[in-house]
């Protein structure tokens, strides 16, 4: 798809607090989630791998429209609109920080891992949005994921004791972060809205069986 110079003109209106409509292209003010109306992609269906459906986001999909997305990123760049980029906290950990962590009196009840992700699609309200990303100018985010299989959450550390019928279960928590994305189903609206991404792994109390069954359970 070739973008016209008229879109460039419209993008400059993002810095003005007004709504303009020119030649069927619509630009809204920056505090509104819809930033730009574009041509969209005809007869396009995202291919979402199964493992991504469990996480709610995907870093690599087989039919990501790189050329289409790259042109939009270029337009945003010319309008001095920057994509989001988190700083990897692991790059700033000193030896002192490592020793402090190892000697800490606190211990995590759930095993987790920090990652930097560059999402290509994110799910929200059962709809998959195309996230603006490229190899040279990506949107990246720091996340913390529970280790193990998302469909089979691990139990909390054995150091956390709960009276039966309760037990500790590691649960993935999410936080909303703002992203530039293309709205389905035609991906013809550029939006800047908040999407849920993994933020931490939390130990929560669960009931293993109904309280009414407590007396029938052995050794309770």
From TrEMBL:
Organism of origin: Brenthis ino
Signal peptide: 1-19
UniProt KW Hydrolase keyword: no
Record domain Spaetzle: where: 108-205
Record keyword Transcription present: no
Protein name according to UniProt: Spaetzle domain-containing protein
Domain of life from the UniProt record: Eukaryota
PANTHER family recorded: NEUROTROPHIN 1-RELATED (PTHR23199:SF12)
Keywords noted in UniProt: Disulfide bond, Glycoprotein, Signal
Annotated GO biological process: central nervous system formation; innate immune response
GO cellular component labels: extracellular space
GO MF terms, alphabetically ordered: growth factor activity; Toll binding
Gene3D superfamilies noted in UniProt: Cystine-knot cytokines (2.10.90.10)
